[in-house]
Amino acid sequence: MSEQSMPVTELNTRGLYCPDPIMMLRQALRKLQTGDIVEVFATDPSTSWDIPRFCVHMGHELMLQEEILDEKSQKEYHYLVKKGS
Question: 38: domain CATH number?
Fold first, then answer.
């Protein structure tokens, strides 16, 4: 990952359910500069459609969306969101 695409902040929303992950992402992005990146980790499956829709609606770029397995083989959701202008 290049230095320009390194996350500025990590957001751990594991164990939280809608609407908390989106609200936390929105608050985190408000504190950042245009082009900064937030890395989000979630366990709520609804984030797989909530975060992409949020990005489109608010003008942010969804750079990465993936499902991963944690150390207990539980599904997690991982996102990189670049703040729009």
Answer: 3.30.110.40
Is pLDDT at 81 greater than 60 in this prediction?
yes
Instruction: Give the count of domains, the chain.
Output: 1
The amino acid at residue 84 is: G
Q: Residue 25 sits in which domain range?
A: 3-82
For the segment 2-55, what is each residue's pLDDT rounded down to a tens digit?
556 788 999 999 999 999 999 999 999 999 999 999 999 999 999 999 999 999
| CB-based burial, 31-42: b 16+ in 10 Å, e otherwise | eeeeebbbbbbb
Is 55 an annotated catalytic residue? no
Residue of 18, 23, 56, 64 marked active site:
18
User: What is the residue whose two structure tokens read 């797989």?
Assistant: 48
